[in-house]
Every structure is written in C-alpha cells, then in structure tokens.
Amino acid sequence: MKLPQKLYQLANLYTISGAAMGVYAITCVGGRFGAAVDLLALILSLLTAVSLYLVRPEKVPWWNPVHLLLIGINASLIFIHATGFNTATHAFPTQQVPKVVRQSLLPDFDAVPWFPPADQRIAAQFVTRTVNEVVATTQQVRVGLDDLAAPIREERAGLENRLREERSRLEENQHEGRLSLELDLREKRSGLEKNLKARVAERQRLEETLRKGVHPAERKAVESRLAEAQQAENRLHDEIAEHEKRAQEMLEKLDAKEKRSLAELDSQEKLWKGRLEELVIKERHLKELEKEAAPILEALKQQLETSQKRLNESVQELDRSYAGVRGYSSDLLPIK
Questions:
Q1: Closest by alpha carbon to 279, among 102, 118, 153?
Q2: What are the backbone angles phi and psi of residue 4, rounded to the nearest 5°?
Q3: How many whole angstroms separate alpha carbon 327 and alpha carbon 120?
Q4: Selection from 238, 236, 250 nearest residue 185 by Cα
C-alpha cells in the first residue's frame, strides 16, 4: 500500500505529534517493566521515523540525502516530543503547581518522572516520617509498658506496706497487752505479799509476847489473836497461790490468743505473698517484653535512618546532576 503523493507534504510529514504520543505511551509501559526509558524512547523514535519513510511514494528515491537527513530530524523531533510529554506530566512539583501536574497519561505504568529528585525527595520525606513514627511508637510502647507496670508496682508496694503494718500492729498490741497483764498481776501480787508480810510480822510479835510471858488473864486473848493471825497468814498464802495459778492461766490464754493471731496473720501473709509473687512475675514479664522490643525497635530505627541517609545522599547527587537543567532548582519543594 502506497500513500498518495498529495499526502506526502513537509507540513504534515510523518505526523510527528502522533508518533511522539505512541513513543511516549510505549516507553511508559516499558518503564513499568524496568526498561531504560531514555534509550527505549530514542530507539523507538528512530524506528518510527524509518518505518514511516518506508511508505513513501514510489517516485521518492531511498538514498536521497535530504530525506535521510529528514529521517534523523524526524526521529529527533519524535524523541523531543515524547520527552516533552513526559516533562509536562512529570515536571518537578512545587507548592504553586497543583497535583494534577504529576498525573501521567498512564499512571499505572509510568515509573520514570522527568525530574527524579522529586520522587527521591518525597521518598526521603516518607522515610523521615516513618522514622518519626517508629520513634513515637517506641515511646508509646515504653509508656504503655510503664502504664501497665505502674499499677502492678503500686499494688505490690501497698501489699508490702500492709504486711509490715499488720505485723507491726499485731506485735505492738500483743506487747502492750502482755505488759498490761503482767503489770496488773505484779501489782496484785505485791499487795498480797505486803499484806502477808504484815500478818507474818503480827504473828511473830504475838509469838514473842507469849514467849516473854503475859498475865494469865490476857494469855487467852493473845492466843486467840495469834490463831487469827495464823489463819490470816494461811489465807494470804492460799490467795497468793491462787493468784499465781490464775496469772499462769491468763498468760497461757494470752499466749494462745497471740498464737492464733499470728497464725491468722501468717495465713493472710501467705495469701498476700502469693499475690506479690504474681505481681513480681507480671512485672518481670513486662520488663522482658520491653527488653525484647527495645533492640527490634532500635534496629528498625537504625535501618530507617540509614535509608534516610542514603536517600538524602541520592537526592544531593541528583541535585548536582540536574544542576544545569533549565527550570530545575533544588529549592523547589515536592508536593506533600
């Protein structure tokens, strides 16, 4: 099939814009699959120019130097047009340019922006945000672990204080009760012994009086008083013995009561200590979790910081590479 002679005019030679759009679309797809877009676009532009020349009219010679020159020019124009489309759709974004500028004709396939530092900067900012999020997450994990451990520590401290207070209170009450009982027993015994001493003195005085001799008329009265003193002395001995027995029983009851109180306290302490052991285990588990999480979070943070450093170095290198490109400035900020 040959094109008519009238269509073969320099004004519409080879439909440069249409060919460029085809090259641009094909390079977008090729870039999606990892092809070298610039080299692919150049080859496609040259092949398109040559293929269009193959449908020339029969009267047009093949080895015409002018037409061969036009093939090269057309290939260059196609390549430049395709590059221009890419520039229009992937120009370096600024705060003043809307996001629609970054849209491409084939957004799902186009992977090569005209100014790579734009995406590099965006990637660097993304890594920076990720680093900040990791740091915040690390802090949140630590705060969360502290929040979990705080009530455990408070409960454990409260139980320990309660154990000490209960034992101290019981020991203090037992000590005060024993002292009070012993004091009462000593006072009563002291009174009995004082009365006994007086009765003994009275009996000895009466016995001495009888030994010295008394008037027969008074002797009977003295003997009667001596008998009464002896009986009173015996009653006091019995009272002292009864008091000792009663005191011993009271002390034994007090000892039994103290033992019961101590047994109850020991039982309560056993329950509390079991609870304390549970709290200690939970606290230890939380510390182990924090210890296990710390290196993982730190490693992730280090990895992200390394990625950020590499991206920043890549951006700086690209800034230097694109320093001479018209319209490019490293001060332009990418759209966030």
A1: 153
A2: -65, 155
A3: 18
A4: 250
CA–CA dist 291, 233 (Å, integer): 82
Q: C-alpha angle with apex 28: 22 to 33, nearest 5 degrees?
A: 130
Q: Which amino acid is at 20?
A: A
Residue 168 corresponds to which tokens in the numbers above? 């101290």
Give the model's pLDDT for residue 136. 75
Q: Return left, alpha or beta for 327; rule: phi > 0 is left, psi -120 to 50 is alpha, else beta.
A: left
Residue given tokens 């460029």 in the structure block: 20
CA–CA distance, 150 with 143 (Å, rounded to integer): 10
d(CA 63, CA 79): 23
Q: Mark out the alpha helices in the chain (DSSP H runs).
A: 16-32, 37-53, 65-90, 116-212, 216-321
Q: What is the pTM for the complete model shown?
A: 0.31
Distance CA 120, CA 312 (A): 8
Residue with tokens 């020339």: 56
pLDDT the model gives residue 215: 62
pLDDT range class, residue 96, cuts 50, 70, 90: very low
| Count of other CB atoms within 10 angstroms of residue 316 | 13
AA letter at 171? E
Band (181; pLDDT cuts 50, 70, 90):
low
Alpha-carbon distance of 299 to 216, in angstroms, equals: 120
Angstrom CA distances, 207 to 200, 231, 235, 236, stand at: 10, 14, 19, 19
